[in-house]
Amino acid sequence: MAEIPPSTPTADATVAQTRRVSAASLERSRGANSATIPFGFGPRLLPDRAMPERRRRKKTDPLYRPLHIYALDPAQASLDGRVAVVNVPWEPLQPGPTGRLFEVASVGPAGESLEKLNLDDTFLLLDRGVRPTTSDGRFHRQMTYAVCSSVYNAFFNALGRDLSWGFRHRPRLLLRPFAFEGKNAFYDPLSGEVQFGYFEVDYSQFSKDTVYTSLSHDIIAHELTHALLDGLRRNFTIPSNPDVLAFHEALGDLVAIFHHFSYPEIVRAAIRDSRGDLGVETILSRIAQQFGEGAGLGGALRTAIDFRDGVPTKKYGDVTEPHELGAVLVAAVFDSFTRVFRTKMDRFLRLATGGSGKLPEGQLSHDLLMLLADEASKLAAQFLSICIRAIDYCPPVDITFGEFLRAVITADRDLVPDDPWAYREAWLSAFRMRQIFPDDVRHMSEDAIEWRPPELAVMIEALNYAKLHFAGDPAHVVSDQEVKRQANALGDAICQRDRLHLFGLVAPNGRDIDPPQIESIRTSRRIGPDGQVTFDLVAEVTQVRRVSVEGRTFPFYGGATIIIGPDGEIRYVVGKSVSNEKRLERQATFIAADDRFWVLSGLVTTPSLQPFKILHGRER
Fold it and tell me: Residue 593: is it exposed, middle or buried by C-beta count within 10 angstroms (0-12/13-18/19+)?
């Protein structure tokens, strides 16, 4: 069996790192005419055993811990739902607070030690935690914990499993509400921290205020999404094309935006002000309003609305900076959301207007407002799940926006074959309008875009759900021994020489092409809108080819995401081969003009580059 090498903060960041080959696979592949090739285990295959295991719930445990938060940021008007109470899934907490997944640092702005926040204090339990205020450092810590727990729960519900962190040297993600003075916040994958900045704003000679990014719901959600995506797809930190880091930024913004809709007061305020038209800019579509104004941007940090005179202001290819390019993807996804919302809203408008569909002047009626707000909240939750579920259908390396669209369409058709409200048609239309097209697809239609099953049927009996060993719930992390067994079964099936082409793999040559690496194998439990439940296994396999261009050698990654059904049959293969010369040429051209690839691949050292900041162009 392969041994996982000890991990250090820099080891996981170095994509050129050579990993040991599985001894079992090596033995089976002896000889020039062997039917199989050797394969290895990636450094993150085994669960981080330092992460505390999920505690078995007792009958006397509450379901939720209600906590006060700012639903957007402190500058939002109170009548628009500035303050909300979020029901965080219950867990025992140590003072800090520190739970199974998160540890909140008790350090103040000047580096001073603060008294740890005890959310199990009787008075705080009765009062739903610390009351919202910018002046109480305890609330800053409560806010970061509550929003992170809520967002993590959205990922857990969408994927149907516990998520692991991308870092391996600490058991929990460290949240630092007063990390530094500066107009930024960022996730650091090397230290396993999310650091929140703060800065002073002079409104006039007599008026000053301090903006804390740890009190911005959007910034907290955005940065946590970076950490969660890093755990789901470790190679998405390597910018092999312009879309990779932009996808990180876009997903963070999408999670923050769709999470707005979980707060009823905010949704009702937005629909009231827009008269039901979510295609115009509202508090729901703006990201980090207070931060953007305080940073001198003249408004919100970003917005999901990109129309001017009915035409998108930017299309794919117009910009390359990750935040700006990511905003194009955010606008496309939110546009598809508003298209579906309009379709669903029409039936209520016809009922409310006697069939005309034309609203009279004045405020919406209370009943209509409540109906539309409820419909918008449900739809946003569905779109959030669609975006998160699609990650399991994305390639393990070198993601592009077009491939994300293919992942969305495939995952959605897989779970909801019938599409009476034309969700997928809305996605295709919004992406087409912004010229986001998948490579090597002739038609922007569902059947053309959907990922294909392998050319030959491959059944892996050892991965039949009846033969998997779970510790109670398939959603929870399984033992190291079971992960190794599953990985070896997968490797034996896909590393047969006559099957390599099916999975984007090539035989290693001992010089510039390494053996394939099984990076992960995880359960997936998805619940559809009609309550149907589907189970799969989702695996990542990668392979490295070292390429020299103009005297510089860089790792060229390939591999596949493999979706395995509960009966052990391989259902989908999302492959990217290291022998694809067209993709290699495109990557070589890109990285020749962008040093971020060399830095984030661990090939060049520069401590100043931090890719996962909420705002580009601003240093700490």
Answer: exposed
